[in-house]
Design goal:
CATH superfamily of the largest domain: Spore Coat Polysaccharide Biosynthesis Protein SpsA, Chain A
Number of helices: 12
Distance between the termini: 52 Å
Largest sheet: 5 strands, mixed, barrel
Helix content: 25-40%
Strand order of the largest sheet: 6-9-7-8-10
Shape: globular
CATH class of the largest domain: Alpha Beta
Number of strands: 17
């Protein structure tokens, strides 16, 4: 039987993973202005929306943020209500396993019964009541030692840009054991997954007791775990920053999925302690300009003409459909064009199509090659 809301969430600590290199939304995003600090979907930045969404489950004092030195200053400004000491700046990028593991080792010492939630800082959720209800259920389930809970999203298309979760039968209403995790498939496999009906998109949202994750890191990343433990032991002392800077770069550079979840899910469905909650709360990770266009089109009223999304100082469209244009302070005229993406900033102009918007990162790679650092 599940606990009431206050019991279930009383020891809940959200951990926001807020690194990123700022490539997918170039030229608006840059290394020091990654997606999570941009206001892509409303007035608040993506990470501000993430915090606001989670506040019914945890007070500001229980939030932790893990970021990099390029984004730290902006995040401190945008999240001024959160404890600044709990916004950790990685001395080197080491992917999600060391970042999540560090949070687990810290909270294992500070709050041994803590249920830790790992959240990407840059996703969109349109049905917040459904999101909170799913999380409350997951937090309750994660309070049991050894349980790992992941939120899965029912696919609406054969997407090749997401990882997938294969689920087994229900252990309780709305709760499934996980059979396996599969990284981003090709189109043929993605079509098979969607047709089978028991594959969900991996949302990247995980719940577990801090001790459960810490023990999983000890088991599966035995070389990295001692470094994270030493860093956690230094927390609150004058030597913390020096210990963090010295030891964290020695951690393995590996994702949480590869390090912990895939090995754990190979034990077989009936022995797995990984559970999935299929969710339908209007999730989108906004992974490209095309994804942002799709999301904003979904928010438009049905009578909106031609399906253009234009952020500008006035617009005119003639025989133009399916375009995304970002040109603040400009008047935009669209004449006889379809499916374009046009993004203007003070120092750069992107012109592509929605179909090719995933290739924007190649522009950033080219800029690195020609040493145009001011544009990266």
């Amino acid at each position: 039987m599940f606990m009431d809301s206050a019991q279930a969430t009383g020891s809940f600590y959200p951990v926001l993973l807020a690194g990123g290199s700022g490539t997918r939304f170039w030229p608006r995003s840059r290394r020091a202005r990654a997606k999570q600090v941009l206001s892509l979907d409303g007035e608040q930045s993506m990470i501000q929306q993430t915090v606001h969404r989670l506040r019914p489950l945890a007070p500001a004092g229980k939030f932790w943020v893990i970021t990099n030195d390029l984004l730290a200053e902006t995040l401190h400004e945008q999240l001024a209500d959160l404890p600044q000491s709990q916004m950790l700046t990685e001395p080197a990028a080491r992917n999600t396993a060391p970042a999540a593991g560090l949070a687990a080792f810290l909270l294992e010492r500070i709050a041994p019964q803590a249920v830790l939630g790992m959240f990407p800082a840059d996703h969109v959720v349109s049905d917040e009541p459904a999101f909170l209800a799913t999380l409350r259920c997951g937090i309750d389930l994660a309070r049991t030692d050894g349980n790992i809970v992941v939120l899965g999203i029912r696919p609406t298309r054969p997407e090749t840009g997401y990882g997938y979760i294969e689920i087994g039968g229900e252990t309780a209403p709305g709760i499934h054991r996980v059979r396996r995790f599969t990284e981003k498939p090709n189109l043929a496999r993605a079509e098979e997954f969607v047709a089978q009906g028991n594959f969900l998109w991996n949302s990247g949202i995980f719940l577990w007791k801090a001790s459960t994750l810490a023990n999983a890191i000890r088991e599966h990343l035995s070389e990295t775990a001692p470094y994270l433990e030493q860093i956690a032991q230094a927390w609150g002392t004058p030597r913390f920053q020096a210990t963090f800077a010295e030891l964290y770069p020695q951690c393995e550079n590996i994702s949480l999925d590869y390090a912990v979840l895939e090995p754990r899910s190979t034990k077989g469905e009936h022995h797995s302690s990984i559970f999935c909650l299929p969710a339908g709360f209007g999730w989108n990770d906004l992974g490209s300009w095309a994804a942002l266009y799709d999301h904003q089109i979904d928010q438009q009223p049905p009578e909106a003409a031609a399906g253009n999304v234009v952020e500008s100082d006035g617009k005119y469209a003639l025989q133009a459909e399916g375009n995304y244009v970002y040109a603040p302070g400009r008047f935009v005229a669209l004449v006889g064009v379809e499916d374009l993406v046009v993004v203007q900033t003070d120092d750069a102009l992107l012109i592509t199509t929605r179909h090719h918007s995933q290739d924007v990162s190649k522009v950033v790679k080219h800029l690195k090659e020609i040493e145009r650092e001011e544009l990266i």
